[in-house]
Amino acid sequence: DTGVSQDPRHKITKRGQNVTFRCDPISEHNRLYWYRQTLGQGPEFLTYFQNEAQLEKSRLLSDRFSAERPKGSFSTLEIQRTEQGDSAMYLCASSSTKGGYTFGSGTRLTVV
Amino acid sequence: AQKITQTQPGMFVQEKEAVTLDCTYDTSDPSYGLFWYKQPSSGEMIFLIYQGSYDQQNATEGRYSLNFQKARKSANLVISASQLGDSAMYFCAMSPREAGNQFYFGTGTSLTVIP
């Protein structure tokens, strides 16, 4: 296993378009997290899955954002009707119940 | 409320010297974990070191050590024998038990190692 994988690495989109990001966690990790990191800031928690269940959602996750983990493996984060304020690095992390919190390299979104 | 404060936006250190990156935190949870991550320009968050709130001794991992002062709520990272490859953003993070699996991050410190 090569760690947490995120795709794409970079995404440029026009304002108003929808975008979807994918995260593949470490295979034996049952927990998956999404964070958002804007320029000059640390990552901020968005949401958390245990297996396929979405157990926590931050108030940062507006109605335009939706995350899924349908089979308890990979996860997708969709942003509808993107706004310039959505420009950020979106980081995924995974862990097991015993720990091993590991981040991916992130998807850098630019909304123009 | 949970809060992590890193007051040094940027730091410079001479190669082979030691450097201390400051971090203070605030939480009412008596059980929490403190972490330091390195983020190079590629974007990946690389785990460096962990300190549990009940750990009696300061954590060490190779050239990294964590100066944990619980009464002051500080968790400073010490990097010894700096290398050029240490140049990166460094983030302090906290995970209180009451917050489940959520991490709270500071705003980071940009470290530049000078040859």
What layout of secondary structure does this protein have?
The complex is a heterodimer of chains A (112) and B (115).
Chain A: E1 5-7, E2 10-13, E3 19-24, E4 31-37, E5 44-50, E6 53-57, E7 65-68, E8 75-79, E9 88-96, E10 99-103, E11 107-111
Parallel strand pairs in A: 2-11
Antiparallel strand pairs in A: 1-3, 3-8, 4-5, 4-9, 5-6, 7-8, 9-10, 9-11
Chain B: E1 3-5, E2 10-14, E3 19-21, E4 24-26, E5 32-39, E6 46-52, E7 60-61, E8 64-69, E9 74-79, E10 88-96, E11 104-105, E12 109-114
Parallel strand pairs in B: 2-12
Antiparallel strand pairs in B: 1-4, 3-9, 5-6, 5-10, 7-8, 8-9, 10-11, 10-12
Question: How is the biggest beta sheet of chain B arranged?
Answer: 6 strands, mixed
Structural class, from helix and strand content of chain A? mainly beta
Task: Please report the total strand number of chain A as a whole number.
Answer: 11
Helix fraction bin of chain A: under 10%
Plain-language structure description:
The complex is a heterodimer of chains A (112) and B (115). The model of chain A has no long low-confidence stretch (mean pLDDT 93). Chain A has no helices and eleven strands. Chain A has strands spanning 5-7, 10-13, 19-24, 31-37, 44-50, 53-57, 65-68, 75-79, 88-96, 99-103, 107-111. In chain A, the strands form two sheets. In chain A, strands 2, 4, 5, 6, 9, 10 and 11 form a seven-stranded mixed beta sheet that branches. Chain A has 112 residues and is mainly beta. Chain B is mainly beta and 115 residues long. In chain B, the strands form three sheets. In chain B, strands 2, 5, 6, 10, 11 and 12 form a six-stranded mixed beta sheet that branches. Chain B is 0% helix and 52% strand. The radius of gyration of chain B is 14 Å and the shape is globular. Chain B contains no helices and twelve strands. At the A-B interface, strand 4, strand 5, strand 9 and strand 10 of A face strand 11 of B.
